[in-house]
Amino acid sequence: MPPVNPLLELCVEKSVSYLASDAALVSLDQDPYWPKWCSPWWHMMLLWELNFASRIPSRTIEQLVQKMDEHYLKFFPFRLEEIPAGADPVRHILCHCALGCAHQLLFDYGVDVDARLPWVREWYFRYQLEDGALNCDEQAYTTTRRGSIVSTVPPLEAILHCSNRGFSDEEIAFLDRGAHYLLERKLIRSRQTDQLIDKSWLNLCFPRFYHYDMLRGLNYVFDWALKLKRKIALSSFEECVARIDAAFPDTLVSVGRRCWSDSNSSWYDPEKSEWYKAPAGTFALLELVGEPGSFSADLTRLWSEARKKARLLLELDLLDAD
Length: 322
Hints:
This protein is mostly helical. The protein contains 13 helices and 4 strands. It has one domain (8-320): Glycosyltransferase, CATH 1.50.10. 46% of the residues lie in helices and 5% in strands. A two-stranded parallel sheet has the order 1-4. It has a two-stranded antiparallel sheet with strand order 2-3. A hairpin with a 4-residue loop joins strand 2 (264-269) and strand 3 (274-279).
């Protein structure tokens, strides 16, 4: 195993210090999410993915919870005329994928999400389409009626992992429909044409944030099958396993793509008290752990966990060789 990058602790501490600052609280007060990729939202999400969520200052988590509840509409509008007067059609509407990620961060930190944000869990059920997926493109609910894997996986993860009790019938149905949606597409392929939906999904991504890749899909369907004792057809995921095996024969996984490339963001100008568009930003910890081609201890761990889950599925007779 390659040595730990000596800069990691320094960059982690830099993010933790920023999150403890008044500047971070001001940013959250202006908007819980923007600007991408450098607001407190992204620092917290990355620390969570690195298993350092416990180092996030509690007052910053508290501010995030409060602002999510105050700032966002409690529904996902399908048409502009549904947006209340004074609400921004970008900044005041939550995407399903962003919500699913934040839900997991808060739950793992120890926040009682169901008590503090009681509208969140029902959100996922309300916006699951007939095909078993969700979609952050509002047209999916008015015309196409087709889901999106990217929009779907974080909500599925949130329902599967963010509870200290058994699953309700509604939750089981939600999880089953979502898993079947993924498996019918072999995690990466169009159900209709069998073509790759997005070639970038073959390049493993870290941090994930809301991004999708084949390893993220594998871990979700394996967790779902193990928790709910569901049988999975080998043909529905064997291509993804074979591709990762071939790319990393020594099981040491490197980052395949830069998650923050080529994107714009909303930024706040305090002098003008207005928002404007400009290229997205970044920060030291993100650049350190997300550089393409660099060894990723976290992706290596996730791949190791996926292999262990596959062996357990085999032992429990939950794999169907077709």
